[in-house]
Amino acid sequence: MGVWKREITIALLSLPAIAIAGFLSGHLLPLLLAATLIFLFRQIQQISRFEYWIGRGGKGDYPNTKGIWEDIYYHVYRLKKSEKRRKKKLRKLLEQFREFTGALPDAAVILGQDDVIEWANKAALKVLGLQPGDKGQRIPNLIRYPEFVRYLKSRDYRDGIILPSPVNGQITLAVRIVSYGAGLRLLLAQDVTQLKQMERMRKDFVANVSHELRTPLTVLKGYLETLQDMDDGSSPLLAGSLEQMRGQTERMQHLVDDLLMLTRLETQQRRTVCVDVPALLKQICNERGMVENSAGRLELVLASAANLDGDEQELRSAFTNLVGNALKYSSADSVVKVRWFEEGGTVVFEVEDRGIGIAPEDIPRVTERFYRADSLHGRKIPGTGLGLAIVKHVLMRHDGRLNIISELGKGSCFSCHFPPHRKCD
């Protein structure tokens, strides 16, 4: 501001001097016009010098001048120096980022607009088969797996995908994309071959053990039923022991059946047909012996006639588990509501009870295998702890999602939402 005041003061003091000289000489207007032209010419000259200096990038020292233009040059010079320091700092950070990602064991690729490769680390060259000269190429032209191309185009990167390495089909990669910056994305590919092998070994072990247990359990149950038929009731201890043995044998059979169901869901191909869901729900709700004292407790509402494209046996298992849980975890005199309806284009199967409810901290974990929330509240309700895990896997195979609303002491509402493309005629 000080320089501006000085410039204005000089201009104001110059005007009276010019006016007096013009008045005495009798040439007031020509003198004022000449002074104005000189002032304009000086400013145009300064603007020209400034444009020339800026056009060269503001490099080197700024031109020697006085007044307001000296301040303008100085401020621009400071801004240029500050910008230079920021660029230097950013370059250093970028180099550190590249060194860091270059040392990562996981593949990292920076994608720009139109899926163009901007940069890739050494691991990406190794497991994705990219070359240093691929910079500027579109990655779908180099990695052509249909699942990867669909994932890239979807722009929905909340979940990753699993695919084989383009270099070695024996290597399994977990690929995930993270968006950042203005149109930039970071593609990460992790070698999960060992994890997948261990997972396959676990599945095979569970399947083999479950198959091996089924036969001896069937034999034990048969002999126990025979012994119970032969029991004349003379020994209450023997009768009680046989009943307990039979109950535990049945519990083991249910556990084996659930484990085999989970194994089938994880390993077998889907057998897709158009399932008449309303008829299936009528069958499930009319089944006897689902839960002890369950007669008359189910209220079925069929607000939609929609059918689902899927596996009938898997859907039956999921729906039966949800209905059975609602009956088990609510009092014997309460009603369980079962609904089939459409909402916003999706088809919904809903089971609502007025049972013991689920604590908020348990809700995210109830679909885990063998997780029993009731055990935390002192409840000993029969079950394998696999029912909701089966429900989760069935819904995943049918593009559905499970929503749980529950409150301790007031009941729960489990709803399965199926997308519109699953409806069939």
Automatic annotation (TrEMBL):
SMART domains, per database record: HATPase_c (SM00387), HisKA (SM00388)
Taxonomic lineage from the root: Bacteria, Pseudomonadati, Pseudomonadota, Gammaproteobacteria, Methylococcales
PANTHER family linked to this entry: PHOSPHATE REGULON SENSOR PROTEIN PHOR
GO MF term set: ATP binding; phosphoprotein phosphatase activity; phosphorelay sensor kinase activity
Enzyme class per UniProt: transferase
A single Gene Ontology CC term: plasma membrane
Entry keyword Kinase: yes
GO terms, biological process: cellular response to phosphate starvation
Gene3D superfamilies: 1.10.287.130, Histidine kinase-like ATPase, C-terminal domain, PAS domain
UniProt catalytic activity: ATP + protein L-histidine = ADP + protein N-phospho-L-histidine
InterPro entries noted in UniProt: BphY/WalK/GraS-like, HATPase_C_sf, HATPase_dom, His_kinase_dom, HisK_dim/P_dom, HisK_dim/P_sf, PAS-like_dom_sf, PhoR_N
Transmembrane region(s): 12-41
UniProt superkingdom: Bacteria
NCBIfam families xref list: phoR_proteo
Assigned EC number: 2.7.13.3
Protein name (record): histidine kinase
